[in-house]
Amino acid sequence: MQTVLVTGFEPFGGETLNPSWEVVKQLDGSIIGSGLVVARQLPCVFGESLRVLDAAIDELNPSLVLAIGQAGGRSDITVERVAINVDDARIPDNRKQQPVDRPIVADGPAAWFSTLPIKAMVEAMREAGIPASVSQTAGTFVCNHVMYGLLHKLAHGSGMRGGFIHIPYLPEQAAAHPGAPSMAASTVREALEIAIAVGLEVQTDLKLVGGATH
């Protein structure tokens, strides 16, 4: 049986919970398709997040790695297409670090593309009645930092596939942010189960429109 590593973050930015970890921890030990899911929490800290992720990958040797993060203000499940080689933090991380215009990997490529079947994942979620889309930016905070570092590691002959998915606030968080969209934890969990199943099964992504005009 294949191992699937799924990660979520600790709370940050004044929140008391992070929906990524609240949902991801529910998947720990699940069998989805041909994969056994192992969940790990990442610190919302530049540098340390990648050290924790790298150690988990080295320990588990997973076939598939899905990193999940909170995107407060987004209304749907957004499967990220690309990570860019820059840290440019609008707010401090959980250790008060706030890098500006700093490369994640010195002399690394400008960007890495997800190796997940991102459009097949989005299509399967939509078919299940879950709002989902391809995202063209993972931001420049710790989520992008992790996505870039993950893909940089996997690009060097590992044979693993990986990428990043952003999820909305949970309803209990949105209650403190009037007007902000949210999604129930049960719906997010179903979306991630679909993403894992598709990631294990689909080797060649679908040719569907997933672009944006701005």
UniProtKB/TrEMBL annotation:
Catalytic activity, reaction form: Release of an N-terminal pyroglutamyl group from a polypeptide, the second amino acid generally not being Pro
Q: Which domain of life is it from?
A: Bacteria
Asked whether the keyword Transmembrane helix is assigned, the reply is no
- Subcellular localization, as worded in the UniProt entry: Cytoplasm
An annotated GO cellular component: cytosol
Keyword annotations of the record: Cytoplasm, Hydrolase, Protease, Thiol protease
The record, for SUPFAM superfamilies, names: Pyrrolidone carboxyl peptidase (pyroglutamate aminopeptidase) (SSF53182)
Which residues are the active-site ones?
80, 143, 166
Q: What is its main location?
A: cytoplasm
- Molecular function terms in GO for this entry? pyroglutamyl-peptidase activity
Query: Which CDD domains does UniProt cross-reference here?
Result: Peptidase_C15
Q: One Pfam family this chain carries?
A: Peptidase_C15
Q: Which residues form the signal peptide?
A: none
Return the EC number: 3.4.19.3
| Any one GO biological process | proteolysis
Q: State the similarity comment.
A: Belongs to the peptidase C15 family.
Give the matching HAMAP family.
Pyrrolid_peptidase
The function of this protein is: Removes 5-oxoproline from various penultimate amino acid residues except L-proline.
Q: What binding partners and quaternary form does the record give?
A: Homotetramer.
Q: What is this protein called?
A: Pyrrolidone-carboxylate peptidase
Give the gene symbol: pcp
